[in-house]
Request: fold
Amino acid sequence: MIKPRTTFVLYIIVLVLVYLFLPWKGIFFSIITALFLAHLVYCSYAICSQVYIKTHCIADTSERKISITFDDGPDPKITPQVLELLNQFNVKATFFCIGKHIEENKETLKLIDQKGHLIGNHSWSHERWFDLYPAEKMKLEIEKTNGLIFETIGKKPKLFRPPYGVTNPSLKKAIKNFDFNTIGWSIRSFDTINHVKKTVFRLKNKLKPGAIILFHDNREQITEILKPFLEFAQSENYKIVPLDELLDIKVYE
Ligand SMILES: [Zn+2]
Reply:
């Protein structure tokens, strides 16, 4: 992916060329500016663009191995239901937890750990405008969440997933000293917005070796989606493994 700095230089060169040689300068200026802005937006919002932060989005494997991940918990009601279902299918997953939710549900976090699943950092507030925060404010949130996870389960995460999957220069600066493995996804289930049947259909269609799938364990409908998906994945001989096994990475300090 071309870096924004390179795109900016190209943008200026093309603007000068248009100014010197082409008619209808206004139209060309608008088109080029729109393309430049679209590129900037893509670099931040596509978690796998790899522009600002190196992110694990899929494993390089032809084996039928995948990982499933859950964001935005722990939720005192829904997370235990998810854990129960995972237990029935003998599957280990990764939970990217929000600090302020952990503070209210420490027992649920302990349960995730006790059941043998992995826990990652997903910021403290997951505030709507998190990606516009200055680096220092982001860093404090991430540090506070890692601190609380350590206090609760005695393990400090090396797995991080940016809120909303947004990466930018501030976040890059914020996580500089954490030595995190930043985790994206290759399949977004859209379990927060889509109808159950549509979500399951989409997952079945997109499933492929090495996939990392994004779910949310704070949505009422998650178990309705998860059950048919797990049945399908296992019937297709997919092995669902934890992220450390899929990516050969360290998950705790
Ligand atoms: Zn999230």
In short: Residues 71-72, 122, 126, 163 surround zinc ion (CB under 6 Å). The chain has two domains: 4-45, 55-247. Residues 4-45 form one domain.
